[in-house]
Specification:
- The complex is a heterodimer of chains A (237) and B (504).
- Chain A has two domains: 6-72; 94-236, no CATH class.
- Chain A contains nine helices and no strands.
- Chain A has helices at residues 6-26, 42-65, 82-88, 94-121, 125-147, 151-169, 171-185, 191-212, 225-236.
- The longest helix of chain A is centred in the middle third of the chain and has 28 residues, at 94-121.
- Chain B is mainly α and 504 residues long.
- In chain B, 73% of the residues lie in helices and 1% in strands.
- Chain B has 21 helices and two strands.
- Chain B has helices spanning 2-15, 18-36, 42-49, 58-83, 92-103, 107-143, 146-160, 168-183, 200-203, 208-229, 245-249, 252-266, 273-287, 299-323, 329-340, 347-352, 354-385, 390-409, 412-429, 435-458, 470-492; strands spanning 185-186, 193-194.
- Chain B is globular.
- Classes of the chains: A mainly alpha (237), B mainly alpha (504).
- The interface between A and B is large, with 86 and 96 residues.
């Protein structure tokens, strides 16, 4: 096994599986192009082949040198401390990855579950909106119970959760909660500074993008968030 | 004389336009601030601003990015000196001696030297850029066809694979991820949908703006979150004490040497200022009579690194403007600015948009010059701004990125893609991969595939056609030699600990 660890094998397996998957999927568009004899697949398949070779080379490096840096490259450009931080924070264990994965699944659940249930119930548009809100509340509760166990995982998942809810809730209603959430996850717990900074950031963004630059941000499509977003835009513009 | 007249015209155009002046000073101050604030960099600012450049004229958009490039490279030196956190890869060697100087209470002197030398390196590089770019572009029009451009892309990617990641293989994999992301969407010859997974959104390809925002701005916030979790984020303490003219004159040889090194490294596509800074520093160590003092707080280390990396900024614009090929992450974003205005950087820009080119050149010249004045004036302000707690900065950056990603096409899915790219970037960075490599692969991938297809059609699908094109053949051979050398090195050269300091 040389210096190989389980993590190295998992990393290698991920790259090789990805290469295999991408190669298999390339048959989906393996069509001839009259003026170009290499077709649409030659370029991606070359990249996939190189990816598989590099994954094997990487495994060899791990086997021979473990986690050490190659002797022939300019690495310090990459030395941003992220690896050391992950190591010192003990965020390299399987349990941390599983807990992070569980948090990351929550936004995807919001994307898919309401539609599945609505399809099953044969619900109409307004019922779907209610369903989305109910599921959002359940998932937010689930997120809040999980986040204290894994703050970094929660910081990864929160922006994604925010992004998938933008379409329904809208930027104007969601942004204040997002600002407070990020501050809290970064360790800020004092209510007054949180409120002041939230007001400052929210106000600055609205002033710059809505009032001055007329950037159209999502207003949401579920009431009363839609009404609030429309009202903000009307007042500012 | 023609160069001087063009420069004067560019200067008059720049400073007779109030919007241009505003954007110029905004770029100067913004580049310095974002370069200096730990946890963000000039790349973060550039990524956030990228979508909004669609609302600016092409002159203003490119000028803004070139100014940010010049001043951001200097700004990154401040975090390298004060925190041992290089604001950008090209500031990494500055930290080798800059941070020990801070520990010895000489932070002000180190910052002052960085101010002076960044300005000197940048200004000289700009002058050479102004003289050299147009002749190179003229030559490129006749000498560079699709085979040469493809060969140069290949060479650039081959060199870039050995910069920025933990191992050559990880560097290469980073670039391949970028190339693979660029494949998604319609193929450039037959318009066949690839990897669209039957989602209409994927047919247009993954837009580079959300991807760049995710990999740079968002993943940076996530990395800082992890650092905060272990309490490694600390506000600095320093006074301001600039080096005397006598001290700077004592290092004139180092400055001149670093200008030469910086310029010639900067002109290479794929690496630019990063290699320049490392080579500038390494040569300073090699030529020094007291090499053992490097890495322990020697002023010459800061001077060599900062002169070289700013000297590379002007040089990096030459392949971008003369050949249409970016040399690094920020110049890759500049390609994005060109594309958003339906323009392609390259030799034809000199014929079709000469005004744009000279306004950009003038802006870069004055941006480098302004490092001296604004750098001196702003240093104390920057030091105070460094004390902004990151928990207040993080939501602002994430929301700016959100607005940036959404504003491109008005699709919330772009925001989702951006945060997913941020998560992927976070995991890749902590595993030793290079996000700059991914972005370079993403931008060069489209150019590479298109020029490869055109080249093969031109050469009637005969690989031997490359033997009749000496430039293309030379670049391909150089690329294969670089890859071969890196592969040989990865098998037979001894590995080193991650934090190895070349000076020690």
């Amino acid at each position: 096994m040389g210096n190989l660890r389980t993590g190295h094998l998992v990393e290698g397996a991920i790259w090789l599986s990805l290469s295999l998957f991408l190669y298999a999927y390339s048959f989906d568009f393996d069509n001839d192009i009259e003026i170009y004899k290499f077709g649409a697949t030659a370029w991606p398949r070359t990249i996939i082949l190189l990816m598989a070779i590099a994954a094997i080379g990487q495994l060899y490096h791990h086997w021979k040198y473990g986690d050490e840096v190659s002797g022939n490259i300019i690495n310090a450009a990459n030395d941003d401390g992220s690896e050391e931080a992950a190591h010192e924070a003990h965020h390299e264990s399987l349990s941390w990855y599983l807990s992070t994965f569980a948090l990351l699944v929550i936004p995807f659940a919001y994307m898919r579950v309401p539609d599945w249930i609505a399809g099953w119930l044969e619900a109409d548009g307004s019922t779907l909106h209610v369903l989305r809100m109910v599921i959002a509340v359940i998932l937010i509760g689930l997120f809040m119970t999980q986040m204290k166990r894994n703050m970094v995982g929660a910081i990864l998942a929160l922006p994604l959760f925010f992004a998938v809810m933008l379409e329904d809730i809208g930027f104007y209603s969601l942004a204040p909660f997002f600002i407070v959430g990020v501050m809290f996850l970064f360790g800020e717990t004092r209510p007054k500074p949180m409120a002041a900074i939230m007001g400052l950031i929210y106000g600055l963004l609205l002033l710059l993008f809505v009032k001055i630059l007329f950037v159209g941000l999502p207003i949401g499509n579920i009431r009363p968030f839609y009404d609030f977003g429309s009202w903000v835009v009307t007042v500012l513009q | 004389m023609e160069v001087f007249n063009n420069f004067l015209t560019g200067t008059i155009t720049l400073f007779s336009d109030p919007v241009g002046i505003l954007i110029f000073f905004g770029g100067v101050i913004g580049g310095m601030l974002f370069g200096a604030i730990p946890g963000v960099s000039m790349l973060t600012l550039a990524a956030i601003l990228l979508p909004f450049t669609a609302h600016l004229s092409p002159e203003h958009g490119i000028m803004l990015f070139s100014v940010i490039y010049c001043t951001g490279v200097y700004g990154g030196a401040i975090t390298a000196i004060l925190f041992n956190i290089p604001g950008a890869p090209e500031n990494a060697p500055t930290a080798f001696d800059g941070y020990p100087m801070t520990q010895k209470g000489q932070a002000g002197k180190a910052v002052g030297a960085a101010v002076m030398c960044s300005a000197i390196g940048g200004v000289v590089s700009c002058i050479i850029m102004m003289i050299a770019t147009a002749p190179i572009a003229d030559w490129a029009i006749s000498a560079f066809g699709p085979p040469e451009i493809f060969a140069l892309v290949f060479f650039g990617l081959a060199v870039a694979s050995s910069v920025g990641a933990k191992t050559f293989w990880k560097g290469w994999l980073s670039i391949l991820i970028g190339l693979m992301v660029a494949v998604v969407g319609l193929d450039p010859v037959g318009g066949i949908a690839r990897y669209d997974f039957e989602m209409p959104y994927m047919l247009a390809g993954i837009h580079f703006i959300p991807t760049i925002l995710g990999f740079f701005a968002v993943s940076e916030i996530f990395v800082q979150a992890e650092k905060k979790a272990i309490g490694s984020y600390k506000a600095p303490k320093m006074g301001v004490e600039f080096p005397t003219l006598k001290e700077l004159l004592a290092h004139k040889v180092a400055v001149v040497r670093s200008i030469f090194i910086g310029f010639f490294c900067g002109i290479l596509p794929g690496i630019g200022a990063t290699l320049a800074a490392f080579m500038g520093y390494n040569e300073a160590v090699r030529w020094s009579k007291t090499p053992e003092e490097f890495g322990k707080g020697k002023l010459e280390g800061v001077i060599s690194s900062e002169t070289a990396n700013n000297a590379a900024t002007g040089a990096a614009m030459i392949p971008l403007l003369a050949l249409g090929l970016p040399g690094g992450a920020l110049t890759a974003m500049m390609v994005g600015v060109f594309q958003m205005h339906d323009m392609e950087p390259g030799p034809l820009v000199f014929m079709n948009s000469a005004d744009l080119v000279w306004v950009v050149f003038a802006a870069m010249f004055f941006a480098n010059l302004s490092i001296i004045f604004v750098g001196y004036l702003e240093t104390k302000t920057i030091i105070n701004l460094l004390r902004i707690p990151f928990q207040f900065l993080a939501p602002m950056i994430l929301l700016l990125a959100t607005v940036g990603a959404y504003a491109v096409r008005g699709l919330t899915i772009d925001v989702v893609v951006m945060f997913l790219a941020g998560i992927v970037g976070f995991f890749l960075r902590r595993s030793g991969y290079s996000v700059a490599g991914i972005v370079l692969g993403l931008i060069l991938g489209k150019i590479g595939e298109q020029t490869f297809a055109q080249a093969m059609q031109m050469l009637h699908f005969e690989w031997s056609g490359y033997f009749d094109r000496p430039i293309a053949l030379g670049l391909l051979l150089a690329g294969f030699a670089t890859l071969g050398g890196s592969i040989y090195g990865s098998f037979f050269k001894k590995a080193k600990p991650p934090s190895a300091n070349p000076a020690t």
